[in-house]
Amino acid sequence: MRTRWQLGLLLTVACGASSAEPTPTPDGSVADASLATDGGSHDSGTRDSGVDAGSDKEDDGGLPARDGGSNSDRDAGEIPTRDAGVIPSNGCGQTPPTDDDAWTLQHDGATRDFYVQVPDGYDPNTPTPVVFDFHGRLFTARLQMGLTHLRRVADDEGFIVVHGEGIGRTWNGGLCCGEAMQQDVDDVGFVAAMLDALEANLCVDTHRVYATGMSNGGFLSHRLACELSDRITAIAPVAGVLGIAGCAPGRAVPVLHFHGTDDALVSYDGFNGFLSVQGSTDGWVQRNGCGATGVVDLQIDDVTCRTWSGCDDGAEVRLCTIDGGGHTWPGGTPVPGLGRTSDTVDASEMMWEFFERFALP
Description:
Largest sheet: 10 strands, mixed
Helix content: 10-25%
Number of strands: 12
Shape: globular
Radius of gyration: 19 Å
Strand content: 15-25%
């Protein structure tokens, strides 16, 4: 039986979904019309235990206010030492926030919101990995939560998961998309600011910070790997390709990419200046100094995964192609009008298995 949260996601997206082919816009972005909602508030899809995105939140010098206590609340617990590659943040020892906290900060002249879930059993004295999960164009943070189920994986595996809200429900991923792209919003800076706030308020393992995202959020994940490689350890974009020129990360960045061959919005073969999925993957193979030939290491039903190894800094590039898959999240909630959702693999579980193998040097 679907939960009220899942039904809210399906109904909200179905109201504006279309099965038509994408319409490229003159500025080179994807006309991601089938991700559009009916213009209503995303509150209709919130979970019973969720925090209303419109609730009052205080700003405290750019750091997020927390319902579970002020930023000054501290526990005098022992701060872990920096050994075995685990690098704690300054937030270790603080009283943990309540579940599903809504945080806010000021960045680049705008008030930006994001949602933070600490895992079950979170220990404020133990450095904990972080995964950013970015929504697609005209989605919201809460719709992304219901799409990917990454929060369930976070509870099971013990990492912090963060869902940010894009400007105009979009992110500046370069060629994609919408208001954030057109206004050249500094979303890379926003992610850095979110990470600063997390490190100041939670016990974060600063060498284990990862990024994923759907569609427009996938584009942003690629951009973060290019421009924030000193803080983002690895990425796992879904249905989104690299959308910027001159990508020059400071290190080899591990990449796991999921994409359906029948994606009608971000074409597997590329279009209108967008890289093809293989072209985007080849770029990471070259940047990371990997071997030229990938090896198929998983082939089951409609899913084929190919891995390029021998990369610099112990990195790896992996492409998982879903034959007949649409503009969808493998193993996630199916969304009407966006094509077939494969349930052969669970992208959220697979990406965590990938992420946990890598840490910043």
